[in-house]
DNA sequence: CGATTCATTGAGCTCACTCAACCTTTGTGG
DNA sequence: CCACAAAGGTTGAGTGAGCTCAATGAATCG
């Protein structure tokens, strides 16, 4: 997933998005002059709808296009030979999908819509071309990729050092921050994924998530009722996650 | 860490390295004409030695330069507020360090030499500049970044779905493949890191690694004696890792 | 409104963790 | 070159966090 939290430059991007209602700006146009923006817009394929449960692309398929999420919510999953599924991330409005496929030109994960969603396709080679004319675009795209590296490592850090409560807390804080950045409430939001998906993402079992939910409630940190989330004590939550709160978990 | 296994294009890169003894070629010059290679060489700062135990850069420092490893072996680590250390990867000859810092222009991890090593500095903005003239260079650098994303996700998959034996087996197979690619034996090599580092990287404890070592020996899959590794049954090892053998764990 | 998928809670188990003792290798100064 | 200190590695015993299995309740959807 592409994360936007934390980097000042990316907050800027988001602001430009909010005013112009243009997803690709959010993702890529940092520092671009208006001429560049026009060209970037022309490079996008028409909007494409993806119904809940449908996949945008599947593991193993050839990379045809990157995608910028215009609205909706996705999960990305990797499947082992034996059919075990591992959720590798959740993506929301304004984030990019498919960058893992640049390496081999084949998708290493599948992207599945968790709600009815709308995406723009972004042609990678055209993007490269345009990046040559507008260095800021090129650099910004690289930042997005670097963000993914940083995020993955942070998740690894989490898996290596946190217990189940802390992982769930970190997960909620991450969502909270991303919602806040989009102008939504950071303390009251709706989960779009199943417990099982959360569990897979955090390297735990669904039952363990349920118990962690109960514990966060007992500690008066967060109330989860089904998919509704109410963060009761944001600072307390951050505190509970200890050394991770500053980082983009 | 930058990984080279698996992608056909990167194997090609490596071949050019073997003949020309030029690390940056290994990392970046895929598809570059000779003029480009010359310019790329000129962009590299002089070789820099890093003694065993010393750090090449530290978490939090400003990004000054990316590095291509000319010889030696590194680990990258992230440290939490409380001082817990998590190993995020191991890098060897011909791999790149520092790409996680492109996002925020600050290093999110520290790189520590596990043996006396030599690196080249590669200036990022100059690299960008040159990338504009040589699209293949640009694209190749992106592939390296995408590789890191894919690798991180694969490690996540491992953490989420494998037990201790399988993780150690996957780890050994990964090293094996990377050594093979460099012309070294894939079944007999030396570990440059402590058990504790392996444990941290795999999300386990040092004692658990020791017991996993014993079990792999009992299964006649691999003999580890101290830091010497002898893979007894490469196919068996791959089999043991099941669905992961095809992937670049 | 019945079926199916998703979520919660309990009971018992297991794999990896902790703590601890001991062994082996590496490095250093006399 | 040896001796000894320090760091790293191995093995055992007991514990515990998260897993499995199972039963039941809640939400979602034709």
CATH architecture of the largest domain in chain A: Sandwich
Order of SSEs of chain A, N→C?
A: HHHEEEEEEEEHHHEHHEEH
| CATH class designation of the largest domain in chain A | Mainly Beta
The biggest sheet of chain A amounts to: 4 strands, antiparallel
Assess the beta-strand content of chain A as a share of residues. Answer: 15-25%
Q: Label the overall shape of chain A.
A: globular
| Chain pair sharing the greatest interface | A-B, 46 and 46 residues
Alpha-carbon Rg of chain A, integer:
18 Å
Instruction: Supply the helix-strand structural class of chain A.
Output: alpha+beta
CATH topology of the largest domain in chain A: Jelly Rolls
* Helix content range of chain A: 40-55%
Distinct helical segment count of chain A: 9
Q: Tell me the distance between the termini of chain A.
A: 12 Å
- DSSP strand count of chain A: 11
What's the CATH H-level superfamily name of the largest domain in chain A?
Jelly Rolls
What is the overall pLDDT average of chain A?
83
Low-pLDDT runs of chain A: 1-20, 244-249
Oligomer: homodimer
As for the number of domains of chain A, it is 2
């Amino acid at each position: 997933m592409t994360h936007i939290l934390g980097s000042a430059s990316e907050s800027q991007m988001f602001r430009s998005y909010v005013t112009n209602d243009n997803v690709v700006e959010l993702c890529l146009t940092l520092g671009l002059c208006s001429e560049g923006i026009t060209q970037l817009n022309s490079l996008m394929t028409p909007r494409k709808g993806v119904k809940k449960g449908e996949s945008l692309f599947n593991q193993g398929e050839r990379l045809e296009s990157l995608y910028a999420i215009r609205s909706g919510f996705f999960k990305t999953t990797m499947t082992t030979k034996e059919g075990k599924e591992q959720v590798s991330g959740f993506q929301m409005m304004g984030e990019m999908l498919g960058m893992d496929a640049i390496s081999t030109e084949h998708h290493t994960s599948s992207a599945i819509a968790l709600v009815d969603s709308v995406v723009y396709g972004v042609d990678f080679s055209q993007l490269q071309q345009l990046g040559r004319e507008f260095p800021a675009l090129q650099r910004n795209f690289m930042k997005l990729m670097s963000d993914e590296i940083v995020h993955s490592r942070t998740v690894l850090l989490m898996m290596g050092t946190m217990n189940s409560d802390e992982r769930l807390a970190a997960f909620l804080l991450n969502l909270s921050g991303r919602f806040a950045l989009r102008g939504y409430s950071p303390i009251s939001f709706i989960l779009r994924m199943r417990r099982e998906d959360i569990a897979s993402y955090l390297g735990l079992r669904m039952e363990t998530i349920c118990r962690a939910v109960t514990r966060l409630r007992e500690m008066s940190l967060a109330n989860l009722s089904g998919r509704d989330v109410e963060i009761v004590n944001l600072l307390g939550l951050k505190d509970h996650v200890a050394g991770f709160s500053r980082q983009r978990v």
